[in-house]
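Entry:
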Amino acid sequence: MRALATKLRRDLRQGWLQYLSIALLLALGIALQVGMHSTMATLADAQARYYAATRFADAWCSLVRAPLPVADRLRAVDGVAHVATRLVDLARLDLPGVAEAVQARLVSLPQHGRPAIDDLRLVRGRWPDPEHDDEALLLDTFAAARALALGDVVRMIVRGRACAVTVVGLARSPEYVYVAAPGGLFPDDRRFGVAWLRERALAAWTGRTGAFDDVALRFSPGADERAVLAAVDTVLAPYGGMGSYARKDHPSHFFVANELLQLRTFATFVPLAFLLAAAFLVHVVLGRLVLTQRGAIAVLKALGYRDGEIARHYLALAGLVALSGAVLGLLGGAWLGDALTGAYAPYYRFPDLAWSPAAGPTALAVAVATAAALLGALGPVRSVLRLPPAEALRPPAPPSFRDSLLDRSGLVRLLPTRARTVARELARRPLRTGGTVLGAAFAVALVVFGSFAYDAVMHLLHVQFSLSYRADAQLRFVEARGDEALGSVRALPGVQAATPLQAAAVRLVAGPRSRRTAILAVPMGSDMLVARDADLRPIAVPAEGLLLARSLADALGVRAGDEVRVEDLGGARRTGVATVARIATTYVGASAWMAPDALRRLLGRPAAAEGALLTLDDDAARTLPGACRDAPQVAAVDVAGSSLRTLRDHVQSNLFRSLAFTVGFALALALGVLFNVVRIAVAERLRDFATLRMLGCRDGEVRALLVGEVAFTALLGAPLGLWLGQRSAALLTSSRGFANEQFRLPLLVTPRTQALALLALAVATLLATWAGWRRCRRLDPLAVLKAQD
């Protein structure tokens, strides 16, 4: 056994570069699996602990106004364990030296004590004094973005009333783990925040003393969620209830759950490419090693070493490669997990979010990587067991040359001589050629799969903010108003046109399916809200019937021509039937559109204006927020240009970093496969290359054969990789994490993404070929030809 241990050390020393490259591929697969799965486990654990510690609600409902005793009727609903009423409103902040629009959601706290549901985590400072109505808590990330400190006075406009509060504490809430402004996609701490005040102060500011306009509920164990929500809606219907919704539909929870689902998808499929490539390379490299060591194997068997001992020697070689990859992969997984957790921290505000290793995913990753390496070694080890000593002492029989499928097809005759040589050499080893082609294809697919999101999100922003939503700014009123409110809006400086933003909260019912949404009253011919079809052509709002977003139509299971029941969640709670006239392509939200007159006939009332869409002149975008400070009916201002710039900056800063990681991993995958295949090809064909050199062939002619083999496999792998990347992207965009009612990622693989993937493969091909040719040039042709086979 000591001799086998010595041989093992020599084998490792002689082929260290190839074994190291295989170990690195294994390490990348393990690092991706450990890093992503452990990050997912860290986020899920932080979410569960935070929700439990703060008693995160199971359901919520907003309403117009209800007296506080109505809460007792909610507590009597079967399945409701706890009820917490509160006031919620929107305020415009007047910050010194800030010209852009800044909004804050105001949420009331119990006059004494802490919230029984959706409790806060105090980060710094203290709770507001019940005896001081001018004290408030601020969301800590918003305070940091605006450099607000304890003791600062924040001025705000609430329902047209100028108010001021003193910041006495900074807090976090389970309702605002992911903080996006109303209608927004991404957090923007500089333009939107949350403030908590004692109930008496907010009630006085909003004129709701003795009432509530929002309620949070926790269910009893085993409660029927659907039945509880229906009963809650029945209780709150007379008070303008907007329809209750469960935790799965809460905006913050939805984004967190959706991100965990996306992370699970990536963590399952991406590491697989590296592990398959490593298994293939272990098979090829050990197969070549066994072939070159036939004589040594025969001597070992003749000296009395059993087949099992020799087989364990080669399995130990694969095991050491797997062990090296596992150690490097675990270190890389720890780094990647910590980096991913740090990248998520600014967007998912869990207290004490710190990466921690997950034992289950770590053990699974090491086991799968080890199994991949040993699986790749089975073929060479089996050949060792079948090799009789007497036969092993003879050189291997020359390959049997006969017409391959390529020769029989007649296509080979169309190729030049050197290309014909390359094609026949590749056809002689179909398994190796196929594995190399798949390795190149996986690298190309990885770039496409990881890079298409950038183009898809930019396309989404273009469709939503340039083609569909074409207003320059949007105002939200303190409360729904009639058309007379537009007169003062049109009088604002720089406003060229104003269209009322009218919406009716409804529940759409189609058979057993129902969805809570809003019907927008869009005037026919409006150029501020333009629906689009699948080809992005404008769709006119029909004079009669509903225009549904594609995601909403799919959720209801309806198509054009079907009828849906419309239940009004405001006003007289009237129920009607409407026909689905058209289906529109949208990527964000699940809305419906109707002509104002048709909506009025359907609901028996006009849809009140909740705000206005504005067309501005060139200078008004900068001055509009300041001009609205003295407009008491305006609760919030959103300038489209500023929002779009924020979104673009967010996408570019995050997706560019992800793109760099993706291209780096793809290069490593392609280079690892091609480098090992090139080295083996050079070792096998040294005599051929030396013979050609002795016959007078120039370096370039000999090099063309080597380059041709690598380039040919890369050329075969490129289109396959593009197809695999396209299919992977299609599967991703159709998965629940990327295709749901609130968000749909379009499938868009642009020529730029394809070119980037092909460029990564080309760079890996050139580097692998250069490394192989350097080895060829260092060898003496005469010495090669004199050497024994």
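The radius of gyration is 34 Å.
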